[in-house]
């Protein structure tokens, strides 16, 4: 075993500040029906001859949020060990300290100690855009995209009921708690990994019998819905 330096057990040293590491990655669901196939479906379904005005197309994205968070702390705490000694012992040296007969009580000596402890805890959640918890297997297969894709299409992304910042804050409140026996913290870290997974929908907007109609194609399943 490696030898630990005595400075590592200095109970009077400064406490470490909380280090936060938050990362966000973006993904898009694999499409079964791309925008060209979706356009064809919409053009085939709208009733030619009863509509007026041009057919317009739009794209929207509905997000899933997968969030994982963890908290860890390495700290020192005070403790006192009880060591049994034979009844004929008049004095003993333990860890460079000499214990005299007056300090040996009922064949025991008390040794003050500094202990190094690590505590880790974590949690995760998967949410749909309504803020409902779902199982990860309910999220379609997806591929990672650059953050620039998310920024470029941000106005087309449906706003989730739960903001990512609120999810992180909830994890922080739940996980970031120093144990009551901390004398000095050496290292303290909170990490959060956010995955935003976008599901693409293609929309066709047209007029039918003087009423605006919208047809939505789910790119994952190819299913068409009329609104």
Descriptive overview:
The protein has one domain. 13% of the residues lie in helices and 49% in strands. It has helices at residues 35-45, 147-152, 164-175, and strands at 18-29, 51-84, 92-94, 97-99, 108-127, 142-145, 184-208, 211-218, 224-226. The longest helix is centred in the last third of the chain and has 12 residues, at 164-175. The strands form 2 sheets. Strands 1, 2, 5, 6, 7, 8 and 9 form a 7-stranded mixed β-sheet that branches. A two-stranded antiparallel sheet has the order 3-4. By secondary structure, it is mainly beta.
What descriptive keywords fit this protein?
single chain; 227 residues; mainly beta; seven-stranded mixed beta sheet; two-stranded antiparallel ribbon; 9 strands; 13% helix; 49% strand
How much β-strand is present in the residues?
over 45%
How does the helix and strand content classify structurally?
A: mainly beta
Give the terminus-to-terminus CA distance. 69 Å
Overall pLDDT confidence: 91
Order of helices and strands: EHEEEEEHHEEE
Rg, Cα atoms, Å: 31 Å
- Please, how many helices? 3
Q: State the domain count.
A: 1
Unreliable runs, pLDDT <50, ≥5 residues?
Answer: 47-51
Most strands sheet: 7 strands, mixed
Instruction: Tell me roughly what share of residues is in helical segments.
Output: 10-25%
Structure summary, number of beta strands: 9
What general form does the structure show? rod-shaped
